[in-house]
Amino acid sequence: xxxxxxxxxxxxxxxxxxxxxxxxxxxxxxxxxxxxxxxxxxxxxxxxxxxxxxxxxxxxxxxxxxxxxxxxxxxxxxxxxxxxxxxxxxxxxxxxxxxxxxxxxxxxxxxxxxxxxxxxxxxxxxxxxxxxxxxxxxxxxxxxxxxxxxxxxxxxxxxxxxxxxxxxxxxxxxxxxxxxxxxxxxxxxxxxxxxxxxxxxxxxxxxxxxxxxxxxxxxxxxxxxxxxxxxxxxxxxxxxxxxxxxxxxxxxxxxxxxxxxxxxxxxxxxxxxxx
Length: 275
Hints:
Layout: H1 21-41, E1 46-51, E2 54-57, E3 62-65, E4 67-69, H2 78-89, E5 94-97, E6 109-115, H3 121-127, E7 132-134, H4 143-156, E8 168-174, E9 189-194, E10 200-201, E11 206-208, E12 214-216, E13 221-222, E14 227-231, E15 241-243, E16 255-261, E17 267-274
Parallel strand pairs: 3-6, 14-15
Antiparallel strand pairs: 1-2, 2-3, 4-7, 5-6, 8-9, 9-14, 10-13, 11-12, 11-16, 16-17
């Protein structure tokens, strides 16, 4: 009887399992990208820029950017602020995010505006120094972020925060007039002082608040060490006193900011009070 060599069966080849998660992940990424593309394709586009903080969409809606105030026509940096907002948004698709109050009294949409690449337009305008923070409750969702951007712009001396060498300082401000503010407009006042050693011609200097109410100084010379009060109401100019000529109060009782600027728009001094 012959001995047979043992039969060696062919090795069993196991199929290598290809992990599925990379393919699944790719599908998910593509779906999200397609969804984002589809969503952004539906976003309105900026058709026109009215000024640094107001745009018009191709839907016909006028949008007032929340939390920021840029210079008005005729004020320094108006053209620069408008040009910056145009360069940032004109012709581009934008996404709007609203806060508590969606529309203002002029029927403008109030919104935070974002570009497709995620740029937060409101904050970027402030960060580059083309506008100052203007937060009106209850629309305060991004107040902290806007103020941080303004602080960055101010420390860097960008745009509105380019500083002047004029030796003037705001040394006092009375916001809460005795009695009724509306009945006692001259109970509101701002006092400035010449801290330098030479007289300063104030013509063309401006005093403003966060709402862009603006007073332009007439031809008046402030001697070294001399103080001058700017009263909100009307009256006859006298040594140490001039008048804004406003028919309504300017300074908010619960807090505001006074900006003193040179004729070229550079910042002379800032006076912050209240909350």
